[in-house]
Design a protein that fits this description.
There is one protein chain. The chain is an alpha+beta fold and 91 residues long. It has one domain (6-89): Aminopeptidase, CATH 3.40.630. The chain has 2 helices and 5 strands. The chain has helices at 50-65, 74-82; strands at 6-8, 13-18, 21-30, 33-40, 68-71. A hairpin with a 2-residue loop joins strand 3 (21-30) and strand 4 (33-40). The radius of gyration is 12 Å and the shape is globular.
Length: 91
């Protein structure tokens, strides 16, 4: 497990490698606003909290970069609702 969320700008996604599988959340970036559009966690990684770890790592990097967030992805939206300490990132 790489254990670190990485930004992959070429693929427009944040990704987390676990047990040889890649979990990813895809985004669009425009005018300092990042729109999360889709999150994928391979079935082999389901139920292990990988999706939450991925989104937390992505949002921490977004905060560090000074970006605002539009959570079009239902998973990202639900994560922010459950973790109000990220609500300040919402556009």
């Amino acid at each position: 497990m790489t254990d670190a969320v990485q930004n992959n700008p070429a693929r427009k996604r944040y990704q987390l490698e676990v047990e040889g599988h890649i979990a990813a959340t895809y985004y669009e970036l425009s005018d300092r606003v990042i729109t999360f559009v889709h999150t994928e966690v391979p079935p082999e990684l389901g139920g292990k909290g990988i999706g939450s770890k991925l989104i937390k790592g992505a949002l921490d990097q977004v905060r560090a970069a000074g970006l605002k967030v539009v959570p079009r992805c239902p998973f990202v939206k639900a994560y922010i609702e459950k973790h109000p300490d990220y609500a300040d990132l919402l556009k």
